């Protein structure tokens, strides 16, 4: 359920950053990759791959590219990163930052590789790929900060301090 | 009801493969889509192999047809060779007979202007002492006509058919001819049989062995002067001398003969 909501939010964010003139670095943001990164902590590699496949297809459709290369790249990235996360037992802010960076990196690498095998030219150069990785890492970092803030906000320690302060 | 249950990782790989193929169909090039180019590239060797196999099969079929035709031609050629060999043998025999006939004509006296050349087609030189020639009434052969070979007298025509004639050989028991010995004017009788002899020589006649014996023509069958044979060792019985005769013609070896017109008869 949370992932479905996150997927919808990512789609809206994707449409938002591409419908208004923004700084070019922000325009390279792929919010749906953060959904894939979120799924790598919950699911096994195969399930994470299926989630990545869906997100990648959505990226292809939203970007107006040939439908397929993005799904394949995202599925491979999700499966690999899920295996890495399970192997290294990544949690907390480190998980978000590392997982989003790895997902974006693998996504771009596999996407370019698939396009090259098909004989098609990628829509952006290596600088665009770096921008995508960077914005994904930044997004992961932002989510990690938000998660930490959310946890702090809902922590029993803070609740007790507020209760003591009211007395 | 059967259900298909795939492992998630395998089904994910299959889905990715299907997506890859679908992507290839979407990517366009001047020559067509990537999928079409890939299919064409992959199908080219198969197409070429199929073409090569079909060509080979067609060539094989053509070669088999050629081989059948060649076998048929070989069979016909062998038959033709056999036929030609048979004809060649017949021609060789014919040439031999013609040479013998030529030799026979060369030995005949020029006074015999009506000569019928004939070939002996059957003979019995042991029991019946007859021979059969391939000329008959149709060719002008008449009974009692003398028959000659290159070496001398063979016999006389005994019976005449339409296309064949029977010859009574000199070795026949009933054959006989008036003769004379070379160097003697006395006429003797040559009697046929397995052991031909001449009788009528006076006792005391000295006759060397191997003396030629010729016809005199007085019996009305053989023209005079034809060689009958050669004398053997003479034996004296009372007042007569019996001389065995070695016939000049060995009937078993004669193949071509000359049939003369009978004495005193015109050819029809």
Blueprint of the fold:
The complex is a heterodimer of chains A (167) and B (268).
Chain A: H1 2-19, H2 24-27, H3 31-42, H4 45-63, H5 69-88, H6 92-118, H7 126-153, H8 156-166
Helix pairs in contact in A: 1-3, 3-4, 3-5, 3-6, 4-5, 5-6, 6-7
Chain B: H1 8-26, E1 28-29, E2 32-33, H2 34-107, E3 115-124, E4 130-133, E5 146-148, E6 153-160, E7 165-169, E8 176-181, E9 187-191, E10 197-202, E11 212-215, E12 227-231, E13 235-237, E14 240-247, E15 256-260
Antiparallel strand pairs in B: 1-2, 3-4, 3-15, 4-7, 5-6, 5-15, 6-7, 8-9, 8-11, 9-10, 10-14, 11-12, 12-14, 13-14
Describe the structure.
Helices cover 83% and strands 0% of the residues of chain A. With 167 residues, chain A is mostly helical. The termini of chain A are far apart. The relative contact order of chain A is 0.13. The mean pLDDT of chain A is 90. With 268 residues, chain B is α+β, with helices and mostly antiparallel strands. Chain B has three domains: 53-107; 115-171 and 253-260, Thrombin, subunit H (Beta Barrel); 176-248, Thrombin, subunit H (Beta Barrel). Helices cover 35% and strands 28% of the residues of chain B. Chain B has two helices and 15 strands. Chain B has a six-stranded antiparallel barrel. In chain B, strands 8-9-10-14-12-11 form a six-stranded antiparallel β-barrel. The model of chain B has no long low-confidence stretch (mean pLDDT 88). The interface between A and B is medium-sized, with 21 and 16 residues.
Q: Which two chains have the most extensive interface, and how many residues on each?
A: A-B, 21 and 16 residues
Counted up, domains of chain B total: 3
Distance between the termini of chain A: 40 Å
Rg of chain A, alpha carbons: 17 Å
Order of helices and strands of chain A: HHHHHHHH
| Share in helix of chain A | over 70%
Anisotropy-based shape of chain A = globular
CATH architecture of the largest domain in chain B: Beta Barrel
Unreliable residue stretches of chain B: none
Relative helix content of chain B: 25-40%
């Amino acid at each position: 359920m949370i992932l479905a909501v996150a997927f919808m939010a990512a789609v809206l964010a994707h449409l938002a950053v591409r419908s208004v003139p923004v700084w070019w670095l922000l325009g390279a943001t792929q919010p749906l990759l953060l959904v894939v990164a979120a799924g790598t902590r919950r699911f096994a590699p195969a399930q994470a791959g299926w989630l990545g496949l869906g997100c990648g297809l959505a990226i292809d459709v939203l970007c107006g590219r040939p439908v397929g290369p993005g799904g394949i790249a995202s599925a491979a990235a999700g499966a690999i990163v899920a295996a890495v996360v399970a192997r290294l037992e990544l949690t907390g802010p480190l998980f978000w930052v590392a997982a989003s960076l790895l997902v974006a990196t693998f996504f771009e690498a596999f996407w370019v590789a698939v396009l090259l095998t098909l004989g098609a030219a990628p829509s952006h150069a290596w600088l665009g790929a770096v921008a995508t990785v960077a914005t994904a890492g930044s997004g992961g970092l932002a989510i990690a900060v938000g998660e930490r803030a959310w946890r702090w906000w809902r922590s029993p320690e803070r609740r007790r301090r507020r209760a003591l302060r009211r007395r | 009801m059967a259900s298909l249950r795939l492992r998630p990782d395998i089904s994910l790989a299959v889905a990715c493969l299907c997506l890859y193929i679908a992507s290839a169909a979407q990517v366009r090039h001047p020559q067509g889509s990537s999928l079409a180019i890939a299919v064409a590239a992959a199908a080219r060797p198969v197409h070429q192999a199929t073409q090569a196999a079909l060509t080979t099969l067609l060539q094989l079929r053509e070669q088999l047809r050629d081989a059948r035709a060649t076998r048929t031609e070989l069979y016909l050629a062998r038959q033709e060779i056999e036929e030609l060999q048979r004809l060649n043998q017949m021609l060789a025999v014919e040439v031999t007979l013609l040479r013998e006939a030529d030799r026979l004509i060369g030995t005949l006296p020029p006074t015999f202007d009506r000569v019928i050349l004939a070939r002996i087609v059957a003979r019995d030189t042991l029991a019946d002492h007859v021979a059969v020639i391939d000329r008959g009434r149709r060719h002008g052969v008449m009974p009692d006509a003398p028959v000659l070979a290159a070496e001398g007298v063979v016999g006389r025509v005994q019976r005449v058919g339409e296309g064949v004639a029977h010859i009574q050989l000199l070795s026949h028991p009933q054959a006989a001819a008036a003769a004379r010995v070379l160097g003697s004017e006395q006429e003797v009788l040559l009697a046929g049989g397995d052991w031909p002899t001449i009788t009528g020589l006076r006792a005391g006649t000295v006759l060397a062995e191997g003396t030629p014996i010729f016809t005199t023509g007085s019996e009305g069958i053989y023209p005079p002067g034809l060689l009958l044979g050669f004398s053997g060792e003479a034996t004296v019985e009372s007042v007569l001398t019996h001389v065995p005769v070695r016939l000049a013609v060995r009937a078993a070896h004669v193949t071509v003969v000359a049939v003369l017109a009978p004495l005193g008869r015109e050819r029809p």
